[in-house]
Every structure is written in C-alpha cells, then in structure tokens.
Known about the structure:
Elements: H1 2-20, H2 27-60, E1 66-68, H3 70-86, E2 90-96, E3 103-105, H4 107-128, E4 134-142, E5 148-154, H5 161-170, H6 186-199, E6 204-208, E7 211-218
Parallel strand pairs: 2-4
Antiparallel strand pairs: 1-3, 4-5, 5-7, 6-7
Helix pairs in contact: 1-2, 1-6, 2-4, 2-6, 3-4, 4-6
Amino acid sequence: ELSDDLSLPLLQIKTTLEVLGARGLSPEKVRLQSVSLKSNAENGLQLIEAYRMALHTDETSMLDLESVAMAAVLNEAAHQLEPYAKNYATKMEVDIIGRFAPVLAHKASLVAALQCLGASLVRAQAAQRKRKNYRVILGAHRSTDGLITTGVFSNARGLSDQTLRAARGLVGRARQPFPALPAGSASGVLIADMLCSAMWQPLRQAAHRQMSGLATAVPLSKQLQFM
C-alpha cells in the first residue's frame, strides 16, 4: 500500500540513527551517514507533500494551468533529486531534444511528479543492477502527435503500460503493486501517475535517448490558442 511505501524513508532514518549511535565510527563515516540521513528525510517529506498535492487535486479536480518552460521544470526536479541520487551513486541528467515553445501545465504538480518518479527509478535501478555508478535522465522531446513527452528514463526494469494498468487496479489492495520494483519505489510512481492524470495524461511507457522510462504528455501553450 502507499502508506507502507511512504513510511520507508522514516525507517531508513531510524536505521541511520541506530548506526550513528554505534561506537567506533570514524568522523568521515559519521559525516556520510549524516548526509544520507538528511537526503532520505528530504525525499520522504517531498513524497508526502506530493501525495497531499495529489489528493487535493483529486478533490478539486481543477488546476491552474500556466505557460512554463520545460527546461525550468526539468532542472528544478533534477536539483531536488541530486542529494538523494548521490546516495545511490546516480548522476541526474537533464536532456531536451529539439527546441520548442513553453508548455501548458501546472508547474508545481509537474515538478513534483518528476521528482517522485525520479526518486523511484533511482532506487529501483540501483537495486536491480549492481554497478559502480548509474545515470537517470529527466527528458523531454516532441512526440509524433505534436505534444511534448516528458518523463524520467533509466535502465530500471519492470515498468510498462501493462504493469502500470495492473498497479492502478491494485492500489489499496496489494502490498507491492509493482512486483519487479524494490520496496519503497511503488509510491513515487503511483503518486506521479495521479498528478499527471489530473493535469493532462497519465504516465505511460516511453523511450528517450535509447533509455526506457515513464512519461506524460503536455501540450505547447500556443496549441491551445487554436483549440
């Protein structure tokens, strides 16, 4: 359930505090554990705040859409993710293919969705693939229908349109709606899906720079002037 996933950062903080309380740790190890503690706390708070935003959006079903630059959204989400990603030896990259006008979106919701989704894929990829370092892309590109596809892309496995559909039906009924993802990763994906659904389109499987991921689609601001 979402509540189980949302509690994971708190459990990680508890474990870190127990480690810090042990004797014999060098000053450098204490520093590293303190950094990890802070990033886990921040990620947990961001996840809870995004969930509150998603619930509020669902209740009001109305968002104040505005014209926003895609680069600003992606860079803000990447900046929020960097401390958490460092815990998993992951480099966050922002990549926009081509040039296009601002999009019409609810900026806070889109940033929160990308941050939640990014944190989930950072954790999932590191758990599934044992490497010295990883990369996760926050990307955007123009799709064939003229909309802008934007999302998070990595080498994490187990995410597809089929698994997303199944997970949506399991919310509140299954402890782990995404069997292939490690504990703590499902909530970010589902909260991002809720935020994107309230804005324009739910998450779907997509590719960017030969990396797979999940993305939503948003229209260019000027497109709506002719609708």
